[in-house]
Design a protein that fits this description.
Length: 527
Amino acid sequence: MSQAIADRVEFHGPKVATAGFEVAESSRLIAIVVGLSALFIYLQVFILPCTPTVANGDQSIYLHHAARMIGGEMIYRDYDHFTLPGTDVFYAAMFRLFGVRAWIPQATLVILGMAMVWLILLLARKLMSGAAAYLPALLFVTLPFSSFLDATHHWFTLVAATGALVVVLEARSVARLFWAGVLVGIATFFTQSMALLGLGFACYVLWERSREKLAWSVVAKKEVSLAAGFLLTLTACMAYFVRAVGLKKIIYFTVVFVVKYYPADWYNTWRVYLRDRPHLHQWTAWFDLPAFGLIHLLVPWIYVLFVVYGARRGGKSGELRRRLVLLNFAGLAMFLTVASAPVYYRLYAVSPAALVLLVWLLTSSSPKVSKLALRVAWAGVLTMLLARPLVAQLRWKAYLDTPTGRIAFFQPVLYERCQWISERTKPFDYFLGDQLSAFHLRLHNAGRIPYLRPTEYTRPEEVADAIAGLEKHRVRFVSWYRGLNGGPDLERHPEGDHLGPLRAYLEEHYHVAHVFSNGDKIWERDQ
């Protein structure tokens, strides 16, 4: 008996040691991949050695909001926006800790990218092995993520949502579903539509019950646990804002406004699908073409392909099958969060599940097809890993010292505008119409909204508020981009244009002080 035990110990000992060695090696490789991804992103959003690029895009809206928040203003009470406050709160917290600095959104992008690479690695390694398990994460960071380097609410939401998927992919216990609900609640605090992911998980639990013949009491506990994690988290996150501004006002901006007025702009409707492609006349945008083409092919069509492929391979069963189906449920649910306005960058922000499924399908196909496709994918990844940082570091750029720090510009017109305004204003002057300049130059917004639109998106009361702010604070400069006097939205629905009173006010009290190279204007108040 004792000899048998000794033999068993001798047999298992080396296997345990080997497994431990493999785990350690795997952990080191994951750390290397995540670290190299961080360097890859850093070289695109910072010019060596440490100058951040300008915070262009939608992120400037949230940065401007956060600067207002640390000045004592409150979302929904003092300024208007249609998402829940998560992104504003995050940046306000960063500004409290480090000051209002230009490097914060770019450093945030590095951290978000690292987090997503790590989470996608965890997902993929539960479904496949070998080098293929690293491919989805590298495809993500080199294609969709690098094609939308904008630290906006979409990426914050995706990190929390992907974390929830990682938690439940291995097992759907009551405890795991509770924590998944917590993470979905956090994701929803940044983007309210991500609550649909929780619904996707709930539907999967029902699907799994029908396959495993679970008792309804067990299913009920799981569903309640998921809902409890979600509701407790979202309630805790929103309690302060409900108390400060009232539930009715929050529901107006995040539900009623989104349903009635958000689609007034063409890029907030389903018609935006396959629109707004990278500009071919800008050679630096050519590197964004593969992401645009790949993600539009994958999302949501890869999920349909998986259903057909899985049905055809009816022999697939067991835990791997359940995990793949869960990934499909989650991917579809995340797609539905952006389906009403599937512009390219929103599709990018729900693409990880599709990329994981793509690589799994490739590895499961015929060896000839799999080998060729994987070689092409790896070649694309390696090309992007080398090319994107080189393009960012070597392309044309201009530098400007601002109250938020020294920043680098890639677009001449942005540099031209920010420089012109910086030479004629000082921090905390009142300003209207350009949240990017307002953030970097630390200017106060004279109205409730960061920018204007000639559609129902900008409400008549917001226009009246802007006029009152201009009059009250005797605002010297107003930024007026060329789209406010024309464009497809204004031509299709002129009745939605509420800017007439503001145009009349500017004509009466202001004059055009400067016209930039792209046709945008600066109005200056008459003395």
